[in-house]
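User: Um, any thoughts?
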Amino acid sequence: MLRFYYNAAPNPLKVALFLEESGLAYEGIAVDTKRGQQHEPAYLAINPNAKVPALVDGDVVVFDSNAILLYLAEKTGMFLPDESPVARGALLSWLMFIASGVGPFSGQAVHFRNFAPGDHPYARKRYTFEARRHWRIIEDRLGQGRYMMGDPYTILDMAIWGWAPRIPAMLGEDAMAEFPNIARLMAELDARPAAQRALTLKDRHAFKLEMDEDALRAMYPQIFAPDPA
């Protein structure tokens, strides 16, 4: 059985959606990052980057959410486009764009808007600008078809589904109005039974909710690190 290490953040949700859509048997193992469980030696042996999600499939270990999506899609043959080189090129390009651009800039925008101590106007401006720019590219892509790859529902849509609900947290309360195509996709995916099951993942464990000093130290240790010389 697959072992899926998760919390309630956007990246684990992507994988949870695939697992629920595919019907693969899995054991969900909570990693409470506000309690610092991602830094425990047993978990670092699975993911030395101390992030969630991670997946263990027998002797195979995969970490990083988009890598897990691709691994599971190739393992099952599900939620992939056709096998043409053109489709494969598009799938990989968009998957890496989400992994290297959408996710990181969205996360930094959320961080500097909501969690970073002190006042960082340039950081807020930079990450807000870049997050919005990346999401506009996704918005334009979704204006060309029902899903990221046109007609087929693929892992790209799952990868978007994890982060898109955080758009108001990164760009402002009314920001989703800028992205009607993304909002349309979110509404469609949210209505899927698999998505509704995936969203219950956070309720399977009593995750710590308080962002107290211990949680900040576990999640953002750079806050407490000495300034570089």
Summary: The first strand starts at residue 2 and ends at 6.
